[in-house]
Design goal:
Rossmann fold, six-stranded parallel sheet, 22% strand, globular, Polyketide_Oxido-like, NAD(P)-bd_dom, oxidoreductase activity, acting on the CH-NH group of donors, NAD or NADP as acceptor
Length: 221
């Protein structure tokens, strides 16, 4: 299986790549990154990893990265510490639009993409803690909020894609890989998720396909 990962140089992305390499049978992991020098040595030197340097608006680079891929995993998202200063104009949604368009041309159907609680789902129920969290983001990081909502809406419209919008709230550095997946308002869905558990979900979903064309909220248990 050949898996293309966007956002692999971040804290979550690194753990996801390691989990893919550890748990899947003979995978090839392609990393498309603007700054591949940020990759730790164990990933950068792994013979099952292919690293391609490029920007999200570089169609030649994207074309090379997508070639032959079976699954696209994207953890592209606003940088939390820069939330209030996220650029206007929904740049990440535009990047997703470009990537999805190129996936279609290459008949790549499987996409697992980062989402957040700002991506409301019809199956969600009221939750004061999640409502407060989303309201805070919408107020103090308006551009980031608009971008997240925009790419979520874009992905949901893609009936030809086998997409999963992996919604997360507050990511932590905890080591537990135990998680629950469901919808906002359920008693077992809290606001915290360890990055290790997030990585475990990605691998499980690639193998089990339990959330195709769905947007689960993932939480640590």
């Amino acid at each position: 299986m050949r898996i293309l990962v966007f956002g692999a140089t971040g804290a979550s992305g690194i753990l996801i790549v390691r989990e893919l390499l550890a748990k899947l049978q003979s995978p090839t992991v392609v990393i498309y990154a603007r700054s591949p020098e940020k990759l730790p040595e164990d990933i950068a030197t792994n013979p099952q990893v292919i690293v391609i340097k490029g920007e999200l608006d570089d169609e030649d680079g994207l074309d090379k990265a997508l070639e032959g891929s079976d699954v696209v995993v994207s953890v592209l998202g606003p940088i939390v510490t820069k939330g209030p200063f996220h650029p206007s104009g929904t740049p990440l949604a535009k990047a997703y639009e470009r990537i999805i368009g190129m996936m279609k041309k290459k008949s790549i159907k499987r996409l697992l993409a980062l989402g957040t609680a700002s991506n409301a789902d019809p199956a969600d129920k009221f939750s004061l803690k999640f409502s407060t969290l989303v309201a805070g983001v919408a107020t103090f990081a308006r551009n980031a909020y608009k971008d997240v909502v925009a790419w979520g809406e874009l992905i949901r419209k893609e009936d030809d894609l086998e997409w999963t919008l992996m919604r997360v709230a507050i990511l932590t550095s905890g080591e537990s890989k135990e998680y629950a997946a469901g919808y906002i308002g359920a008693s077992n869905i809290g606001t915290f998720l360890s990055r290790a558990a997030y990585a475990a979900f990605v691998v499980d979903e690639i193998e089990r396909r339990e959330w195709v064309r769905k947007a689960p909220m993932i939480a640590s248990v």
